[in-house]
Write a structure and sequence with these properties.
Subcellular location: Cell membrane
Distance between the termini: 20 Å
Oligomer: single chain
Transmembrane segments: 46-68, 80-98, 104-122, 134-155, 167-188, 209-233, 253-274, 281-300, 306-326, 338-362, 368-390
Keywords: Membrane, Transmembrane, Transmembrane helix
CATH class of the largest domain: Mainly Alpha
Helix content: over 70%
Structural class: mainly alpha
Order of helices and strands: HHHHHHHHHHHHHHHHHH
Protein name: MFS transporter
CATH architecture of the largest domain: Up-down Bundle
InterPro entries: MFS, MFS_Cyanate_Porter, MFS_dom, MFS_trans_sf
CATH topology of the largest domain: Growth Hormone, Chain: A
Number of strands: 0
Length: 406
């Protein structure tokens, strides 16, 4: 068992870096969509471009999930974090100066590429600096991510009205600029010989994960989490408008409510796992609230709509649940990076198809029933994956049982 150290002793810069990185990663994603209408008044943003902007995050995350473990082995985690943040700053700043939709798409691709790298690095960085405080620090950064999900949509339009949409987009580069400082300090602090040993002595392990049920189970749970989140952020306002008669403002407020549920959930889930090992219970809860929330929208959409959305929003517990498992189901740093890349690249690749599928189902049927049933099925599908992921083991131990030494 890892000895417990004082949280702040020798790790204050790491805490600051993790919080700022987490906030920068999520606010970069959540700050664009509320401003599309204002951007469209200055230059045309066709529906196909909006669709690309909606599908771009999970697609970019999938690509960089594959690339990041190799980049991390070459450059080390601290330097790669600095590089990702610099690219993020460039992309966020460029979004405020674009003159057409092509420029917007290009700048946004830079942003999502950098976020994809940061997403993969975050769990192993937490494990590297806080192996004795995995539950607490996962709570800290997942809660920061939850806050950074609903703050930008709340302030984006008022800031744009007071200044301009360009400033309202570019302003989110400021937290990323600040985040560069602690990660640069951490990169400088890590000695060259230590970094060399870390990079050179670790065997490549990503390919081994394809043969491990534990890795696939965590991937399935993550795919369910990402599918529910990205499909809801793309389609929930439209669904609520069509089936519950919600106005545009009401639908936007209900989407903010859906996102806000993730904040208290992120506060409690990692602790429930780290202290009480309630992994199976949490997967059961996620499946149940998914079915109940969507069932309420199907049966009585205009009655207590906020209640059904709130219940459905509790499925957000899957995100901090999987993030915590990424730290707990790997014994070594190399395996943690590989597992994070494996799970997020495949999980996001799967999730990228569902928002498109949801729209196609609606177009084919003329209603939202089939689409909502698909989302309920995704929530239920997380349960069997979770039962496997709940086993107290690591990918190294599972490999050793099946194939010999790691």
């Amino acid at each position: 068992m890892t000895p417990v150290r004082p949280l702040w002793k020798g790790r204050a810069i790491a805490i600051l870096g993790i919080v700022l990185l987490a906030f920068s990663l999520r606010s970069a994603v959540a700050s664009l969509s509320p401003l599309i209408l204002q951007i469209d008044r200055e230059f045309e943003v066709p529906a196909v471009a909006i669709g690309l902007l909606g599908a771009a995050p999970p697609a970019c995350y999938a690509v960089f999930g594959i690339l990041t473990p190799g980049l991390e082995r070459r450059f080390g985690p601290q330097r790669l974090a600095v590089g990702a943040l610099i690219v993020l700053v460039i992309g966020l700043g460029a979004r405020g100066f674009v003159g057409d939709v092509v420029g917007l798409l290009g700048a946004t691709a830079l942003v999502f590429g950098a976020v994809g790298v940061g997403n993969i690095l975050m769990p192993p960085l937490v494990k590297a600096y806080f192996p004795d405080r995995l539950g607490l620090m996962t709570t800290v950064y997942s809660t920061t991510m939850a806050a950074a999900t609903f703050i930008p949509p709340l302030v984006a339009v008022p800031v744009a009205d007071a200044t301009s949409w360009r400033f309202a987009l570019a302003v989110w580069a400021i937290p990323a600029v600040v985040a560069v400082v602690p990660w640069t300090a951490l990169a400088v602090r890590s000695r060259a010989e230590d970094a060399g040993a870390l990079v050179d002595q670790r065997p490549p392990v990503l390919g081994r994960l394809f043969r491990l049920p534990l890795a696939w189970a965590i991937t399935g749970a993550f795919a369910a989490s990402a599918t529910l989140a990205y499909s809801s952020f793309m389609w929930l306002p439209t669904i609520l408008h069509d089936i519950a008669g919600a106005s545009a403002a009401q639908a936007g407020a209900l989407l903010s409510l859906f996102a806000a549920i993730g904040l208290p959930v992120s506060l409690v889930v990692p602790t429930l796992i780290a202290r009480f090992h309630l992994v199976r219970t949490l997967f059961v809860v996620a499946a149940a609230v998914g079915v109940i929330g969507i069932g309420g929208l199907l049966i009585a959409p205009a009655t207590a709509t906020w209640l059904w959305v709130s219940i459905f929003g509790v499925t957000a517990l899957l995100f901090p649940l999987v993030l915590t498992l990424l730290g707990m189901r790997a014994r070594t740093h190399g395996a943690a990076v590989a597992l994070s890349g494996f799970v997020q690249s495949i999980g996001y690749a799967i999730a990228a198809f569902f928002p498109i599928m949801i729209g196609l189902l609606h177009d084919a049927t003329g209603e939202w029933t089939a689409s909502l049933c698909v989302l309920a099925g995704v929530a239920v599908a997380a349960l069997p994956a979770g039962l496997v992921a709940a086993r107290r083991s690591t990918v190294e131990a599972e490999w050793e049982r099946r194939h010999g030494s790691w």
